[in-house]
Amino acid sequence: MLMSTTHQIEGRRIRSYLGVVNAEAIMGANLFKDLFASFRDLVGGRSGSYEKVFRDARQQAFAELEQAAAELGGNAIVGVMVSYQTLGAQGGILMVAVSGTAVVLD
């Protein structure tokens, strides 16, 4: 399914707008990831374990977004927005939220 952050697809006509679709993926980070991330904060560098959690959450959220659009009969999603947040007292829960407008392209 074609997804775009723009509100139109160049060279394609939007035949119908089916409505807003959204999806969220919430992933808990475990103690070991927190410990390694704290160590990375001290010495610098990237936290591969957290990057993987965000990547997995993003992929899950986009898959659910695509499914929601398909259930409405859409073949594309325009105006896609992605939001990342940390939740919980220690920020140990990661959330990715995605939304857009399901459409039918000619």
Tally of discrete structural domains: 1
Rg measurement, Å: 17 Å
Fraction of residues in helices? 25-40%
| Strand adjacency order, main sheet | 1-3-4-2
Q: What is the tally of beta strands? A: 4
Q: How would you spell out the order of helices and strands?
A: EEHHEE
Task: Please report the first level of CATH classification, the CATH class.
Answer: Alpha Beta
**Biggest pleated-sheet summary:** 4 strands, mixed
Strand content: 35-45%
CATH superfamily: Hypothetical protein apc22750. Chain B
Alpha plus pi helix count? 2
Q: On the 0-100 scale, what is the average pLDDT? A: 84
Shape: elongated
Level-2 CATH architecture: 2-Layer Sandwich
Could you give the distance between the termini? 13 Å
Q: Which structural class is indicated by helix and strand composition? A: alpha+beta
CATH topology: Translation Initiation Factor IF3
Instruction: Give unreliable regions as ranges.
Output: none
Short structural description:
Helices cover 35% and strands 40% of the residues.
Explain the overall architecture.
It holds the Pfam family YbjQ_1. By secondary structure, the chain is an alpha+beta fold. It has one domain (2-105): Hypothetical protein apc22750. Chain B (Translation Initiation Factor IF3, 2-Layer Sandwich). The chain is 35% helix and 40% strand. It is built from 2 helices and 4 strands. It has a 4-stranded mixed sheet, with helices on one face. The chain is elongated, with a radius of gyration of 17 Å.
